[in-house]
Amino acid sequence: MKQFPNTYVIISAIILLCALATFFVPAGQYVTAADGNVTYERLDPSPQSWQVFSALYNGFVKQAGIIVFILIVGGAFWILNSTGAVSFGIEKFIKAAGKYDKLVLSGLIVLFSLGGAVFGMSEETIPFVGIVVPLVIAMGYDAIVGLLVVYVASNVGFSSAFLNPFTVGIAQEMADLPMFSGMGYRIFCWALLTAACIIFTLVYASRIKSSRAVNDSHPVILSEAKDLPSEAKDLPSEGQESNGRRKAILWILLLTVVALIFGVTKFKWYMAEISALFLAMGILCGSIAGYGANKIAEQFLAGAKDILSAAMVVGLASGIILILQDGHILDTILHGMESGLGEAGKTASLALMYGIQTVINLVIPSATAKAAITIPVMAPFCDMIGLSRQSMVLAFQFGDGFTNMLTPTSGVLIAALGMAKVPYSQWLKWVWKTVVALILAGFVLLLPTVLFNIAGF
User: Which of 107, 22, 138, 60 lies closest to 317, judged by CA?
Assistant: First the structure.
């Protein structure tokens, strides 16, 4: 069986195709006259050849701010996750809820959905699948319920995020929008989709429990601390001192979220301020956990290393736009889109953008890669047809998130299914209708951004 090409290979192939296109697509550019009128004019061809080899360097230079932002935030959250405080908080919540299993399921869905909406919780869900799946099976449900509570909930939050720096932050920066602007409607979308996720999960869970269709291949005990992933064992599992530290770290996380919301809304914080906030959070959490300076540095570097591939994707993908710009065919492509879609209206154009993002996500699950490829092209097109860039960013979010639940190119999905011991074929057969319903719901939520004057959109 042939191996599916990874993201770097796909983007490199796109760069080569774009360079090849500069030999055949007519060159042109938009020109703004003194009276403000914008017209499209043809230019002499400017084919790109050896420039494909400098695309990575030039892309890194162009997107240096975003790349540094990604590395700092990734390193900071790695320090936070290594303390085990998040695992501790979820286990405390489960124990506090006691026999109220419906409350437990609903509360966990809200927590994981918030994780996706606030800091892009994705890979971090994998160890929690191993914790929650045995829990829900012990309650009398099946492994699918566990995946709904953890993986699907975090994806719903990820898709409708309002503070996720890796999707909303990066996409809005590339679209020249204030970071985390339009938060009000995004919070509404998140709340609505999360509520729908809760209702769907509870209905499915009740049906499973009543029919007693429980997968007996899973252990029916709540995972203990020894079963947690290694990164969650840096603090001892017992003792008042270690528990107190974990609680303090959770308070720091909560205060960080509050400061983030206040900073971006009141003081218009941008990448420099937000990355500084996350870096301070990571260092403070590490200090509370009892880490020395060396260990904090080691954990930060481990996190930066873990997310380095995403940062490199941003630089490489940016090379696509540079090739199109230097070859003077980007404006030609925009002119063609304007001619073909401008008469179709804003709604049809937004639907097409949403469809493009959804299809691309089946091949390239990386949000940062898709943002770097698509946002610089779609943003100016939105201006041409009078469509809000905020609407385009929301279409990017929905298109980037929903299909993550079924694409086989998502390493997170495959790892989560492995933790839950659910075969991909079984999962695909079960989940595709849910994904289709979410895609349709996303389109319905996009319509008000075109039809009504929503604040921030």
Answer: 60
Q: Single out the residue of 85, 103, 81 nearest to residue 94, CA to CA.
A: 103
pLDDT at 222: 32
Q: Give the separation between CA 134 and CA 303, rounded to whole angstroms.
A: 28
Whole-angstrom Cα distance, residue 93 to residue 253? 16
Number of domains in the chain: 1
Q: Tokens for 52, please give them.
A: 């494909």
* DSSP assignment string, 316-364: HHHHHHHHHHHTT-HHHHHHHHHHHHGGG-HHHHHHHHHHHHHHHHHH-
How would you label 349-377 residue by residue, b for 16+ Cβ within 10 Å and e otherwise? bbbbbbebbbebbeebbbbbbbbbbbbbb
pLDDT at 376: 80
- β-pair partners for 28: 42
| Beta-bridge partners for 41 | 29
Residue ranges for the chain with pLDDT beneath 70: 1-7, 36-38, 90, 93-99, 124, 127, 130-131, 212-241, 265, 334, 337-344, 363-365, 408-409, 411, 455
Confirm whether 457 is domain-assigned. no
Domain presence at residue 2: no
Residue 179, domain member (yes or no)? yes
Give the span between the Cα atoms of 26 and 39, in whole angstroms: 16
What letter would DSSP give residue 148? Answer: I
- The answer to whether the pTM exceeds 0.70 is no
CA 205, CA 222: separation in Å to the nearest integer? 18
Q: Which of 273, 306, 321 is nearest to 62 (CA)?
A: 321
SS3 state at 24: coil
Structural domain contains residue 456:
no
Q: Is the dihedral of CA 8, 12, 14, 18 positive or negative?
A: positive
List Cα–Cα distances, 329 to 34, 54, 359, in angstroms.
Answer: 24, 18, 23
DSSP state of 123: T
Task: Determine contact, residues 78/70, Cβ cutoff 8 Å.
Answer: no
Among 260, 242, 308, 318, which residue's Cα sits nearest to residue 87? 242
pLDDT attached to residue 159: 94
Residues in the chain, overall count: 457
Domain that holds residue 303: 7-451
Which pLDDT value is given to residue 227?
A: 37
